[in-house]
Write a structure and sequence with these properties.
The complex is a heterodimer. By secondary structure, chain A is an alpha/beta fold. Helix content of chain A is 33%, strand content 23%. By secondary structure, chain B is mainly α.
Amino acid sequence: MPDLLQSEVLPETSDNVLDIRDLSINYGTPRGELQALRHVSMSIGKKKIVGIVGESGCGKSTLISAIIRLMASNATVQSGEILFKDQDLLGLKEKQMRALRGIDISMVFQDPMQTHNPVLTIGRQMVDIQYRDKLSKANKKKRAAGMLALVGIPDPEARLNQYPYEFSGGMRQRIAIAMALMAKPDLLIADEPTTALDATLEVQIIKRLEELQDEIGCSILFISHHLGVIAELCDEVVVMYAGEVIEQGSVRDVFHNPAHPYTAALLKCDPGHIKEKTRNLPTIPGEVPDLVDLPSGCIYQQRCTKGFARCQSERPAFRQINGSHGVACHLTETDLSKETSQQNEEGITS
Amino acid sequence: MLSYILRRLGLAMVITVLAVTLLFLIIHMIPGDPVSTMLGPRASPELRAALEERMGLNRPLFVQIGLFFFNMLNGDLGTDVFSNRQVTDIVLGQLPYTLTLILSSITWSATLGITLGCYSAANRNSLADRLTGILSVSMIAVPAFVVSLYSLLIFAVNLKWFPAIGAGEPGNFSDQLWHLVLPSLAIGLSWVGYIARLVRASMLEIMGEGHVRTARSFGLPERWITYSYALRLAILPTVTVIGVGMGFLLSAAVFTEIVFSRPGLGKLVIDSITTRNYPVVMGAVLFSTLIFVASTTLADIVNAVLDPRVRSSK
């Protein structure tokens, strides 16, 4: 990277593959601007696996579509930057961004049945994505077959000539992983890669992903609502709620010592944590607030059981409470007098 | 793949037999006795009986149908009642004119329609897309014979750019091509609009699917995704529609051939129906049916070639 860029970046970020700072994204809707992401900051270290948890509509998908810059046409970036290896992805030209896709940043999508083009062979699709390489077609095929073998698909040469419909869902997701890792990217974004699969397959795929990550040495941004998988696979976890990061830290800190009431409630609702037989599974009462017409104060206050007066008037700032463990909640603030939302203003660049 | 094609061909044969039987019955239900049409009201009973015998009209209907099929398999479609020429020769003499007209029309209109449809889908809601939309709907709305008449009036009579009637000197290719322009325009115009709308709709649907997002996430060039990845899928319904559309093209060809006094199957059918020349009518309609069945079968096979899921389906 040019020195010019380097000087603008804080020294601590050089270890990170991805740094998202103060990212806010709106969607233009007929009802008004929907504030899908608000002042989101997070980072992914080299060779780290970071998980994002949160319920549907919390902004996970918006976040990853912004990283790979494949946003919906009605999405607008309000503020922030996405630094990938110290260059701001949001400032790149489309052509520069396209050069990164599939090579430096690649993705595995949620639904393996929808991931591949149904009328082209797997081999053709795996060869096509290597179009930037000046290799012979035979060599590209060989590399593709090698990747398929690596993700555990038997007889890969023959299977390259088959079409997606001839593979099961689990196989297709393995193929998707093979395709995503073929160019040995620095960052793999996995968007709920195991949600559409059954539990046995999920374990197999997670295991394989872990091995491959170790081998290739890439970082992974792993989106899931399966807390067990996050705990198993990830080093760090980011908890999102209604477009905000409300807690992040190491898996150990966040899962064993949740600081935000939402995280605590989420953990309580995880079926994996329930030891005793119950008739009804626990839920978090209430609904996610309307992101077009945001309530004042804390975004979670309507559903929070521990809220107090200040939660309704003032948005809690995201602050570190213990090393890398950070949270946006008034309950954790020891010094209640002067801490306001200063931290949010610091990051705004535009 | 082979078993798929064989199954399709078998189906095509069944359809042909059914269609021919139906046509045979319909032609015999047309009011008016061919014998009196041809011989006039004052013909002697002997003369009438002789003609009926020659046309085979004195036999039971099902025997007539059976004989027709039997002769058809031997390539014999009977003889023209007036000229005594072989119907097969007459029809085969007219067939190339109609085939050229239909195939040229569908070729230019499909090429233009698919291009416009892709462009519209790629530039959705742009001014060009809206204009294409309005133009397409107007093209669909205008019937082929109206376009025939007006294009004849404007381009042949007033501007004198193109010849008005006929199909050109036999053997003179450029003259024949020149004569083909206006009729082909008349038949193809509504198809441009139709295919453009169809391709636009299926392109938009396909471009929103997960595999297109995957292709984008691997940095494939957008043009590549559109024309090589998405169009291959979006074209499938269009292929089927064009296959079935051959039937509409044939009926449009009938009008157009009459307006431009072009030789062809359509003109042959009309001429022979007005004279109750049953063997020629049957021969001409049989070939039209064969064209239709062949085109739908071909569309199915093309679909199977393009889509592996169709190939493997039972």
